[in-house]
Amino acid sequence: MTGVKENLQEVKKLKGGKVTFGCGTKGMIQGKGRTSDEQPQLMNVYLVKSAKPLTLTERQSTRSSFRQQLLHVGSICKCLSVRDDVELWHKRLGHMNVRHLTDLVNKEIVRGVPKLKGTEKLVCGPCNQGKQIKVQHKKVADVQSKTVLDLVHMDLMGPMQVESIGGKRYVFVLVDDYSRYTWVRFIRDKSDTMASFKIWALQVITEKGSLKRIRSDHGGEFQNEVMTKFCNEQGIAHQFSAPRTPQMNGVVERKNRTLQEMASNDPWRKHSCEVLG
């Protein structure tokens, strides 16, 4: 807003409306226009008449101060628009990925963005803090067993969006901790997990002689009376990961992700999995 009419052009009269100044006095809004051509262009600038008449000195001071402020604002805007600070533009564009930001500048997708410097050195604290989900767990040895079948990790994936040719939508994954050998069994429902595990466990015990420990989450397909009875009969120790802590069974969790990526990225592998199912 301004109290000097000469600073504005194309002034449109307005009726009603007041502005309260810092000293407590009020000024009447008389109109609205844009700044003159010799000044930085500002639209919708209000023309406000002060209740207290200004002396000639005050008028000149107000006009000079207003122009200086406009020029100062204009110079700031100009400086900011040409700055090549990658961190500044990273924040302006909603914390955009630096690689995408570089492509955006090099391909001139957005006008007015200068060539940016230091893209390889950008470390954004808010981005790191926002992407950090949980405090990291203490590092443990990758292999927690000494022999094959000393510990087997198991988990259930599903239901999948697309069922296999055999009508199966769940994937029962078992990973040997020592060798990382993986068994993948396809089942129709969660309730079939126990039956599938029994068949697998008896086959392994017959071929290899023993199965010492298994580790799973607290899902109902693993923590039930039938599973407990079977493990006790076969001398298998059943370990459970802590609730809401999949890191404790991270071996099979990571294997699940690998299997999903293999199936989604390779059409031949996906078809093979469906045929096996």
TrEMBL record:
Record GO terms (molecular function): nucleic acid binding
PROSITE patterns in UniProt: INTEGRASE (PS50994)
Gene Ontology biological-process entries: DNA integration
Domain Integrase catalytic: 143-277
Family matches, as SUPFAM superfamilies: Ribonuclease H-like
Stored Pfam families: gag_pre-integrs, rve
Superkingdom classification of source: Eukaryota
Protein name as catalogued: Integrase catalytic domain-containing protein
Classification lineage: Eukaryota, Viridiplantae, Streptophyta, Embryophyta, Tracheophyta
